Amino acid sequence: MSNSNVRTCPSDPIPEYAFIGRSNVGKSSLINMLMQKKSLAKTSGRPGKTQLINHFRINDNWFLVDLPGYGYARVSKRDKKTFQKYITDYFKERVQLVCAFVLIDIRHEPQKVDLEFLEWMGENQIPFALIFTKADKLKPQVIQKQADKYINALLDGIWEDAPQYFITSSSNNLGREEVLEFIGGINDE
Ligand code: GDP
């Protein structure tokens, strides 16, 4: 089910887990890897394609929510505003949301747009965890160092505690078990 307004999202009282990140971070690939489906989420050659709140009912226990990517350079100001409004409404109003996974390309240095987004999540007390993507693109000995660097950048900012994080690759299924266990783990509580 796809929506551009939080008020028309499914009313089922089922826990949901949302996935969000900058365009091209590997969100669609990650969702497809987690669900072992070739094209549950559309991999976007074109930035800005997923512009809706997409709910996938995985089973009776949870919804997977694919949110639009943020930080497109080429989106008009007006589109950016509309986008921000329904995403912020979604996070603030969606009582079913258990955790938002914020995706970060593990190769990149902390980017302002991501740090600001995470701060906004913190200020609004939206529960989130980080998912580092594309770990296969780094040498094994650099992967943890790069994740540590990112977490340290957060701790140098407004954060007192490190957020929960996962290191993943859609190319070799790294992190799949951990993320799914985390989702299952919360549901079992
Ligand atoms: P989205 O825009 O965030 O949905 O990103 P996509 O899933 O469409 O991925 C963007 C690009 O990164 C595509 O060319 C993917 O093939 C590539 N990609 C995504 N995940 C991985 C990964 O884990 N490893 C590698 N090597 N490439 C990836």
From TrEMBL:
Cite the EngB-type G domain residue spans from the record: 13-189
Q: Output one GO MF annotation.
A: metal ion binding
Listed transmembrane segments: none
Keyword Zinc-finger attributed: no
PANTHER family reported for this sequence: ENGB-TYPE G DOMAIN-CONTAINING PROTEIN (PTHR11649:SF13), MSS1/TRME-RELATED GTP-BINDING PROTEIN (PTHR11649)
- Listed HAMAP family: GTPase_EngB (MF_00321)
> Know the name of this protein?
Probable GTP-binding protein EngB
